[in-house]
Amino acid sequence: MAAEEAAEASLARLSPEPGREDGDEENPEGGGETAALNGVVVSGKVKSNNLDVKVTESELESEEKGTEEESTRESDSNILDVSSDYPREKHISIQRHLADLEKLADLKEDEKKPCPLCPEEKFKACYSHKLHRHLQNLHWKVSVEFEGYRMCICHLPCRPVKPNLIGDQTFSKMGAHYHCIICSATITRRTDMIGHINRHVNKGETESRFITLPAPKSREVLKESATDVQVLPNYSTPQKTDSYFNPKMKLNRQLIFCALAVLAEERKPIECLDAFGATGIMGLQWAKHLRNSVKVTINDCNENSVTMIQENCHLNKMKVKLNTKEDENHEPMGDGEENTDTIEVTKMDANVIMHLRSFDFIHLDPFGTSVNYLDSAFRNVRNLGIVSLTSTDISSLYAKAQHVALRHYGCNIVRTEYYKELAARIVIAAVTRAAARCNKGIEVLLAVALEHFVLVVVRVLRGPSPADDSAKKIRYLIHCQWCEERIFQKEGNMVEENPYQQLPCDCHGSMPGKTAVILGPLWSGALFNTGFLRRMLFEAVQYGLDEAQPLLKTLVCEAECTTLKHLSTHSPYDENKQEECGVYIKTPNTSAESYLVHGKRKSDDVIRNAAKRQKSENSAEHPAFYYNIHRHSIKGMNMPKLNKFLNYLSEAGYRVSRTHFDPMGVRTNAPLAQFKTILMKYSAPTYAGGQAEGPLHLPEDIQAGEQVQAAADGKAEDAEFLEDEKSGVTATVLAKDYPTCCAAD
Fold first, then answer.
1. Looking at 524-570, which runs of residues are DSSP E strands?
2. For the ranges 330-344, 490-504, 731-745, which has the lowest average pLDDT?
3. Where are the annotated segments for Disordered (predicted)?
4. Looking at residue 568, what is its pLDDT?
5. Are the C-beta atoms of residues 143 and 153 closer than 8 Å to each other?
6. Are residues 238 and 284 in the same domain?
7. 612-627: per-residue pLDDT in tens?
8. Which domain holds residue 670?
9. What would the DSSP string read from start to end of 356-423?
């Protein structure tokens, strides 16, 4: 009886008292279950088993000895219930410095102290110097670091392992583990713990709920295009914040705003969706400047981002209509005295909201590739609507990770001189296939590839015929790896015996081995819509978007394949001079509303006129790809200035323009052989330094021979020139060949 009373008293002492928790107990994530040192406690009740009896007897012995070390360890390892939403204390294994961990052991030179992270059965009490080495080598060095804290390995009985059955007895082993600083989960392996923390970071769950962590810093308010947004101090680092805001994407946001402003002039009002809101800066700019012309919906699946979007709407005096997947409660914020517009904020997965609702304008800007959202975007987008997507996975699109491009886009690519335009055509091909699966075609309005992103804006054309026409423009590209000449494969399914014959160059005949590769499938159609770009430029000037205006001027010249001085300056909304090849175009006697009926198909006359207009303007389509003047410069020669070289190509009868893809790129319909011939003709020798730029004066018979035999012998000369350039003796060959030709003649 005395033993039973003593056991009951010990169990009563081990149960948590009101306002205090047992030091050897820990509540893992999920709440309700508590792992105790002296038994398994579920919902505050003790399960009796053989292990409980044994541990209770040892507890009685320790009680008779009257040791105080156990109570010290118990008081240091108190934690709160993880099911609570309120901040809780961190586990003792999570510390900032080694000295903080040593304080838990209360090191004294003359006394033996136990390890605060190991049970006495595993590590007995020892003197301070030995305990210091133990904490440093077996706990501190095998920790996982995160935001200045170290999650040391813990050997306390916080995580029970499956028991081993030996005979009639059951033994429960306690394994080493780590405690997560964010969700307090217990994980055994260090590599698994690192992956667990990385998953928290990728989901934006970086705010720990421990009360000992430093308080979040005050938010910073940024202003862009007359729109205020408050961001976290580490807003520019995606791995450190829930709501990512990149100031370098300002140009991207301005281009998308101009495209939306053009669509808002066609039909009012339009429903537009920012599928990945983050801070909500883009949707706020739409609603603040376009006002009643648009109905803005900002979506994000992160709860912290949704909260910040609502606060930013309140900061800009916008009304908010909150709509979540679970319940649809409207929560107005702000007085709305200055602005009566309402922004709808939703907390859903982007695929879900695009499947549930229809929109006129959809913008996709996820982290990395956007191919996972294309099917949903084209499922319910309205006819003649616009889909814009920003792809930031430039490592795969720019051929740095070719296997990733094959996995995401199903495209084989290599690094070329025109890799940025290649990236834009890869994305458009993926967009075309996604639209075709929904019986929709596309018309490319804009394709921009800069340092940090690839932006594609397309108009949606409903029907199987536009879908078939768009799908036919997806073709493979033959690329010569020696001279970088390229050409799209001919249409048709017939297999050719020698595909090298399609290339304008003759590198395969003069070089050993295989010289060309097949890239793609790629979009082979136009990348720009001249009329739409002109109207975007007009909107950029009207709203004072200074950063977008120079780029839009370059894009207009590139779409028309002309230099800037030949750019016409008529009004983009001039009804008599509109040159857009899209389906929307104004006529002198008919307004735009008669062509664009909201939610209805176009009439047969409009479809017929649009088809005729597209056929007539296909002949004026800009040439595909471009040449880099530095890549094809002649060794030992000073090439002319780029603008002068454009004039030389234009005087030779070729279409020519600069390109935004490459500052030193030239978009022209001239073959590479003629491109090099004109470049060599107007290059000056390096040894004649300081002389004025001008054509290279060659003997008359050589000039005549070049003019007559340029087309016939261009391929052979180009291959021979590249072979000599590879060997590094190009300048010597040029110096020797010209006197030989003169002497022979």
1. none
2. 731-745
3. 1-86
4. 52
5. yes
6. yes
7. 444 444 446 899 999 9
8. 627-685
9. H---SEEEE--SS--GGGHHHHHHHPPTT-EEEEEE--HHHHTTSSHHHHHHHH--B----TTHHHHH
